Task: structure prediction
Amino acid sequence: MTNNNIAQIDSLQEYSKSFVSSIPKTPMGKYASIIMLRETKSYAIFTTEGGQQQDIERTQAGLTHSDPMDRLVMFKRKQVAPERRTGKALMRQYGVFPYAMINDRVVYGEEAKKKDKTKRKDDCYLTAGLCGHCTDCMTYGYAAIEGEGSRRSRVMTDSCFSVRPYALIQKGLKFNVIDEKKQTSSTITEYDYTSPQVFLPAVVTTVDLTMDEFVYILINLMRTTRYGKESSRQGFMRNHILAVAFSDMELFSNLEFSQCFYDAFESDTNIDLLKVFLSKKNFDEHAPAVIQNLTEDFNGRLQIVTNSDYLAKFGNSQPTNWTDGLDVILSQTRNLSKDESSLTEFLRQLNTQSVTFARAINNK
Result:
């Protein structure tokens, strides 16, 4: 595969040096980081299984404000698992499964169903049913599978933290059940919930992806809306992509991202962190300066792609390594995601590349 990507996201072509031309066998150090805000749009629960208390960590409030503060934590697994499920559902819906590996060819649909089951992959699912060959397995990685080895993830996601103190963004709620015959009610459950409109700054770092694999990760982030415990009834979230950064090393941690926002809000006389909520507008106002503050002493190559509104906030002092173009990247990705025939072809071709690579490294 060349950098003339099958996804036809032309706006990414000028950043082709930040992607690999084919899936690499060894690390290449090419990073493309998605800088974003995760925003709860309903009540949500971020806790380990079986726990009624949400996950909290005591940290320094800001990078310059040294007071301790309890923060809500959204652990890595609570982010990655829903996004992987989104990608797998897409591949099932648009005809990637089943697929069969026949000599040097990968076939799909009815042709794949005719093949012997030993040569066919009917599905791939978390966590015990990973196939070790598909696009999801090749990008997000997998633990040891008998006869397949293991694959390290090329999508690096870390736990993210709330900007405001946990006490201000949580609410204890009780739920009752009604006995229709006895006409009585009783409490069936009580949990701590994260309130709506809570923001969790995050960076999803991809390393050594092809341009098409990067588009696949973007689609998953743009499509995934349910996170946390009891996500079938709550946990609706929006992923707001603020910028994409191309570099040769990682940018900054999620905790640093939240702490830097905290410092910015504390210094803004128009923002009261003790109020009921922060708005997306508050984050948009400070995001360019926050990102610039966190990257101004960056030790490697760095190009940040964002939107014109963010660039305008720098006035005449716009950093030379910041550029416009994010809206076009997201628009082209969104258009691909909407077009059934294009998305089907894209996912099948991308999966063919993954399967071909997986077979080659496993000598199968």
